[in-house]
Amino acid sequence: MHEAAEEKFVDTVNAIIRRKNAQAKLQQQRKRCGYSQKELAEKSGVNLRTLQQYELKTKDINKASGQTVLAMANVLGCRVEDLMEYSVEEDDEAI
Fold this sequence. Notes:
Elements: H1 2-21, H2 25-33, H3 37-44, H4 48-56, H5 66-76, H6 88-94
């Protein structure tokens, strides 16, 4: 029983590390469209520093205003949902 708890802990920590090291969906979409951060900031009207924080995941894009995310999605030609970050735990809870 004790070993099972340790395995779960290790799996959880590894999942967190993978999420933190993965590129943000915003960054993936921006690069796919060929925009620099500065270009996306100018076209969307979103502050450059804010955009950078979303890409670094130091600021949670899931808590951004709908207007902010919609502005970036419109410029990138994608859906708002394509920019949101979802964790495995959130997906499991929805089931």
